[in-house]
Amino acid sequence: MSRSYKKIPCCKDHNKGMKKYANRYVRRNFLVVPSGTAYKKLFCSWNICDYKFLESFSSYKKWSSKYNHKSYTDAELYRMWYKYYKMK
């Protein structure tokens, strides 16, 4: 099992449905793509993965205390933050 972790704590919104839609759009609507990377001009890449959240543990802790109705211990909060922001 790998013991690696993300160097920068971030959480991305991976929208696999939009990736599939983009591939289908390019394949069906354009018969010949002039060069290997020209498909990038046919579909906006911002529609595929829109959000990336960078957050430290202290800011996650403040957010959690403000919006979560259930109170967690610091160890539980750290584990949740680690799961979403540091694990690969």
Describe this structure in words.
By secondary structure, the protein is mainly α. The protein is 43% helix and 7% strand. The protein is built from 3 helices and 2 strands; from the N terminus they run E-H-E-H-H. It has a two-stranded antiparallel sheet with strand order 1-2. The radius of gyration is 19 Å and the shape is elongated.
Keywords:
88 residues; mainly alpha; 43% helix; elongated; two-stranded antiparallel sheet; single chain
Write the layout of secondary structure elements.
Blueprint: E1 10-12, H1 16-29, E2 52-54, H2 57-67, H3 74-86
Antiparallel strand pairs: 1-2
Helix pairs in contact: 2-3
Brief digest:
The protein is 43% helix and 7% strand. The protein contains 3 helices and 2 strands; from the N terminus they run βαβαα. Helix 2 (57-67) packs across helix 3 (74-86).
Structural class: mainly alpha
- Secondary-structure element pattern, one letter each: EHEHH
The coarse overall form would be: elongated
Helix content: 40-55%
Uncertain runs with pLDDT below 50, 5 residues or more? none
Distance between the amino and carboxyl termini: 12 Å
How much of the residues is beta strand, in percent? 5-15%
Strand order of the largest sheet: 1-2
Largest sheet: 2 strands, antiparallel
User: How would you classify the quaternary structure?
Assistant: single chain
What's the total count of β strands?
A: 2
Mean pLDDT: 77
The rounded Rg comes to 19 Å
Instruction: Tally the helices.
Output: 3
